[in-house]
Write a structure and sequence with these properties.
about 0% helix, mainly beta, four-stranded antiparallel sheet, about 55% strand, about 120 residues, seven-stranded mixed sheet
């Protein structure tokens, strides 16, 4: 069982930066993929970035070069540094964890656990 708690969302103007954090509690073997998803109003949830076993990272094309995913050394906290934010980045951002160490389109292939979400709003 894994419990995920996100923080760090907020409102920012276009071009600004935010850093999201996700504190993970529970089984480490259930966290072979850790990642971020987002869902904007009226749109499907999409993968943003993921980190796999061996610190392999994957990013959605739309955020590559602007967002950076990382973990602390103890691998208990996941971060998403978001730079050069755009209005289209506005969404609810969710932290996810999965036993399967694989990613597709910037998100964990098979998330087993989700956080409650944190809102990111970027104004033009």
């Amino acid at each position: 069982q894994v419990h995920l708690v996100e923080s760090g969302g907020g409102s920012v103007q276009a071009g600004g930066s935010l850093r999201l954090s996700c504190a993970g509690f529970g089984d480490t073997y259930s966290r072979n993929c850790m990642g971020w998803f987002r869902q904007a109003p009226g749109k499907e949830r999409e993968g943003v970035a993921a980190v796999l076993s061996g610190d392999i990272t994957a990013y959605a094309v739309s955020v590559k070069g602007r967002f950076t995913i990382s973990q602390d050394n103890a691998k208990t906290t996941l971060y998403l540094q978001m730079n050069s934010l755009k209005p289209e980045d506005t969404a609810m951002y969710y932290c996810a964890a999965g036993r399967v160490s694989a990613a597709v389109a910037g998100g964990c292939l098979r998330p087993d656990y989700w956080g409650q979400g944190t809102q990111v709003t970027v104004s033009s």
